[in-house]
Task: structure prediction
Amino acid sequence: MSAQIVPDSQWKAPATLDSKESMKRVQDIIGDFDPDHTMKYYDYWSQHYEKDLEVLDYTVPDEIVDGLLKFVPNEKWRESGFQVLDIGLGTGQMAIALHKKTGYSGPIDGVDGNEKMMEKARVKGMYRDLKLHLLMEDSPMPNESNKYDVVVCCCAMVPGLIQPECLPDMVRVVKPGGYFFFTTRSTDGNQGFKNRVDNQIKKLQDSGHVRELMTKIVPQYSWPTAEDKSEKQCISAILYGMEKLKATE
Ligand SMILES: C[S@@+](CC[C@H](N)C(=O)[O-])C[C@H]1O[C@@H](n2cnc3c(N)ncnc32)[C@H](O)[C@@H]1O
Result:
């Protein structure tokens, strides 16, 4: 059963105890940008994060891979030297989706500001290099420019987490001819933040660095609104797919 996307003002309360608890944790992360607070929150959330994803039918990493597969054919993933970077990798859900849907077993590097989340990814053994780094407008990632064939950032750009003004730094590390796919929420409450995302994309397009390939609205977190789970609503996300056109100097 697919969950319904409705305006925020029409959201009904989660009808089961586990979805209520998981939704509270998901929504508690949304707030003003305060990295110290956010990272302390992830110290706590890391213990519940993967369970919450299961409870809330989280499939955004799969959506990102499905989007990528429209532009990056199967054989490309097998070319030697092909490299992926996962920004805000959390517990490694993108690596799982990439492996499951493309069979990709080449190098995936990761960057995240929270060690406890990243440790859950490290033990999965699916990443080559993991860097602890907090993305901020004035602190570029410790990754080489123009390097990666594919860069992804899944559900890590919302108020309180990675800010839209970091988008040029994320594009910087993509190889010319490579792809950058990321998401933010597409809820009414996220419109101001999404406008800042769109402004950054426009600047990157105007300067000839990227071209937009696709956008798609996808369910992000779904919860039952009836106890028998016969109806569900969801928080939706917007998936952006970009191609990098020229090297960042
Ligand atoms: C909601 S989780 C998403 C994790 C993963 N991409 C997924 O799809 O499950 C967001 C992740 O972004 C990281 N994060 C948030 N703000 C960050 C920042 N400014 N710099 C680096 N990482 C950040 C958090 O530590 C967390 O692991």
Notes: The chain has one domain: 4-73+82-244. Residues 6 and 26 are 18 Å apart (CA to CA).
